[in-house]
Each structure stands twice: as structure tokens, then as C-alpha cells.
Fold each of these.
Amino acid sequence: MKSAVENLNPTRVRLTVEVPFEELKPSLDAAYKKINQQVTVPGFRKGKIPARIIDQRFGRGAVLEEAVNEALPKFYTDAVNEGELNPLGQPEVDITELKDNELLTFTAEVDIRPAIEIPDYSGIEVTVDAVEVSDEDIDKSVEQLRERFATTSPVERAAAEGDIVVIDLEAKVDGEVLEDGVATGVTYTIGSGELLDGIDEAVTGLEAGGEATFTSELKGGSAQGKEAEVSVKVSEVKARELPELDDDFAQLASEFDTLEELRGDSRTRLERSKKFEQATQAQEKVLDALLELVEVPIPEKLLQDEINTRKHNLEHHQLGQMGLNLDSYLEMQGKTAEEFDAELKEQAEKGIRTQFVLDELVNKEQLSVGQEELTEHLMRRAQSSGMSPDQFAQAVVEGGQVPMLVGEVARGKALAVVVEAAKVVDDKGETVDLDDEEDETGETVEATSETAEEPAAAEAEAAEAPAESEEKQDKAES
């Protein structure tokens, strides 16, 4: 077999492959065997039909077509390896010549990873926010804890902001009650903004047994986006009572004996959290600076696939769970469809560039991933997915996603190398030491490529089998 590579552009090549006919013999024998098992010829036992009879009955061209389609994946893979290419996705295959007992020639066009030159990144310098915890921050943290220990009790007065009301709702559109527009016994905190627009004004001032009507645009359900007339009836009003901020509260809400000790612990936790945020900010800024240094051509098809995947995930998963569609989402965001598409393209481009650059860094720095590192990463991913580690691991293995996880860890290590080489200062001019920073849970910060917009579709694996040839055996010559 002979092969030649023609560079069509920095991200696409055309392979021209010539295969001597004798190299097709194993596939030709397999084709005769397969046809033998599929057809019946009077006078011959199944599986024992001579090749010449198959040629006479079904045509040599049918056998050649079966043999070529069976052999193409191997010849294509051999040509890719010979050319030391990193293909992305399925190739477009065209059989240009097929001479029986002489020669098979085909071409295969495929996107490839571009060649990337990683420049010296040791001069990268970024500025991040300084870690500052004010008394107001501590007050807010303690107040949030205090809110968690609030108690409620029924009151015989008009409802006010901050009160909890138990309500029944009925929504009508065009005078008709919606099938999914009735709810009873709903608990709602006035001012929380968790229900319909206009609900706060409607229930404020009502006592138990009071009723009101208001109009609101429905956020979900069968009439999503439509204006509805909503009737609300208050069945109960409850007041929230917060515990006193004293040592008794500290003992109730924590392991500390005094309020001062509780506030001190809040300061420590806030500082740890802000340091984690600072480290994440440093990673993002260093990555942005690195991408500015590197020219990365992007395959057009890969980019379009990535855009489509991101848009699909947003429309059919994220927004669907929120009861929104793309139009309502854009309206909430105050964006036009054109602005949304432009942002999506920018995010997809950054994700692909990030992966290409960090993967090249992995190779340049000869980084590897150990079993312990992979296990730790798997545990974190399982936690964020809401699955148990065993369930997540099983899903990863069954889905063939282990190489993807290895790639994520390796890219994280590559970014960590660049962050370590960079100079990071805060907005007060102080040098920031990112070694062994911990987040609010006490987990050590890990620099990962997830700080950037990772491709949702990632990159397609090299095709193990090229698409069926576009030019069939009408070029075959007997």
C-alpha cells in the first residue's frame, strides 16, 4: 500500500491511497464467505457455493463492493498512521479507481488537529482580586446561619414582607381554568420572588381567608409565556422569628461556646473561600493570557458541531428543566438571537482552542496521569453529577469515557504548570502564592481546564471506519 498526504488547509488533509490487489485478497475471501452464508443456489449446499458460481449469479461487482467496504477501514487507518496524523471525526471517502485483479485507489478527506507551537509562557503576569474579609461579610454570614434556625408561628394579622403564607392558586387564560393551573396548600415567603410576578403585591395585606386576583405571565406549564388571570386565597399567615444573636445561639448553631468564637470561625471560612475564588480567577486569567500567545486554527466542521451541541444542551436540558424555551430565555437575558449566536460561537471557539493548546502542552511537558489522580478526579465528577462514585465509574466505563476523563486530568495538570510559571499579584500589588490553596470545603484547589469553556462535544475520535464510499462499484472494471 502507498499513501500520500495533501494539506488542504491547516486543519484538513486529503489522503490518496493505492492498494495492490493482492492486499485485498483476505477481504475478498471474507466477502465470498459472507455471501455464501446469505444466499441459496439450487444444487449447492449453503456455504459451499464456488466463487465462480457466485460471480455468475450475483456478479463480481457485488463481491468487490463487499470486499472493498470491509477493507477500507484498515487501509485508511494504516494511511493515517503512516502520515502521523491526528484525525478528527469521520473522513469523506471516494473510490477513484478499482481495477479487478490490479489496483484499488481511494481518497479520504478528513479534519486533523492543527500543528500548534507553544511559545515561552514564563512571562505571563496577571492581577487578581485581593483577599479581604470585612466585618460586614461576617455579619452577612452569621445572619444567613441565623436564618436557617428561624422558627415560624401562626399570626392573626395581615401578611407582610418576610411572612410565610399558605395559599391556593387558580390560573385562567381567556377565561378558562388551566388543567395544570390549580395548586393548593402552597407555602410561600413574601418577597422571595420564587413564584409568579405580582404575587407579592397580591398577598401583602391579606389575612387568613383573604382573596385577591392579579395578572401575570406564566413561567411554565401548558400556557407558558401567556398572560393569565390568577386568583389567590390565603389560608394561613405565619411570622418568622429569628433567634437572638448571643452565646446561646452559637451553641445551638455550631460547635462553639461563644458568639465571638463563631464569628472567628466565619472569618476563617470566608478567607478560605475567597482564596479559592482568587485561585480560580488566577487560573482563568492565566489561561486567557496563554491563549492570547498562541495561534490556533479551528476546523470549521468541529466548530459547527460544537456550537450545535452547546445549543442543543441549553435548549433541551438546561432550559427544559427550568420550564423555559430559547425565546423566553433570550427575553430574560435581554439578548437578540444574533447576539446569542455570536456569544455561543465565541464560547465554542474558546473551548476548542483551550483543549488544543492544553493537549499540546501535555505532550510538550510529557505529563502523565496516575491512577490516584484519575480516581480523585472521578470522585469529584461523581459528586458534582449527584451520582455515587460507583455509579459514575460504571457509567464512564460503559460509555467508553475513560480517555475523556484522563484528558481532563492531563489538561488540568498542563494548566497548573503554566499557572506555576506565571506571576500572580493581587490588586494591592502583593504577590499571590497559590500553592495548596483550599476551597471552603477544605479540598485542595486543582488547576483544571474546566476553568475555561471546555468543548461540550470535545473532539470526535478518529474514525475507525470511513464512511461508505460515495463512488460505488460502477467504476469497477472486470
Amino acid sequence: MATLVGWHVELEFTEEGHRTSAAALVRLGDGSEIKARGYALRHPSDPEQLRVGEEIAGARALMDLASQMLQKAHAEIDEATGRHSYPLNG
């Protein structure tokens, strides 16, 4: 089976105090890019675990990215068919 296209997703993390931020970027086969952000806040009484903050912030950024990709896909379906499509909420 041949690969038709590949997507490249980048995640970058920063931490300032109790806040971890994730910036996500995906480059799609049509040349467009979608960007998203996610955040995690650590309670001051929680132990410092950078990995956990990265996982939460990264997951939230990827969820935002997925939502934007669904919106893009459904806008393209609507344009091609002239009808309103309804994304499934999983």
C-alpha cells in the first residue's frame, strides 16, 4: 500500500512558574498549516513533574488541533456539496 501524504506535527513546550504551555503545529498535504495551544497549571502544593505538565498541555493542544482540523474538513465538505455537514463528537 502506497502512502498518499504525510503530515508533520510539531509540539513545543515552555514553562513559567506553575504554568506549562504547548504550541502545536500541523502541516497538511494541501500546504496549509494549523496552529493550536494548550496549557496546564500546577497547583503550588503539587510536586514539580515537568513531564505531567507537558502531557496535559500537549494533549490539550492536540485536542484543539483536532477540533480545528474537523472544522476545516467540514467546511470543505460543505463547499463541495452545497450542504451543511455535521461532525461527529467523539
Amino acid sequence: MPKYKTHRASAKRFKKTANGGLKSANAYTSHRFHGKTKKQRRQLRGTSMMNHTTLKTYTQLLSR
């Protein structure tokens, strides 16, 4: 039986935390900032934790 391979695209985008969660960069941060408020731009900086509904799917991709 061959070994599982990690999904490399997911490994580059998501980082696993110590408690088993996943953190990633926010969406809507690449362009068109003139349509966003200063508060929205400020809150989109940095990283955020992944929603628990999609956590299982992406955890399997990273642990293979």
C-alpha cells in the first residue's frame, strides 16, 4: 500500500495550530480596496481561523 501524500496546495495556504485548528489568510485582500472601508481593510490584515464546518476536509488533505 503506498504512502499518502500531503496536498501541497493546501499545505502552502493553511497552517496547523497547536490545538488542531487551521489558520489562513483572509479573502478579499488582493485588489479593489477603494470599495472597502478602513475598518474592513484593517480587519482583513493578518490571519484568521478556519470555520469548523470545513475544518475536517482540509485537515484530511494536510494529514495524508
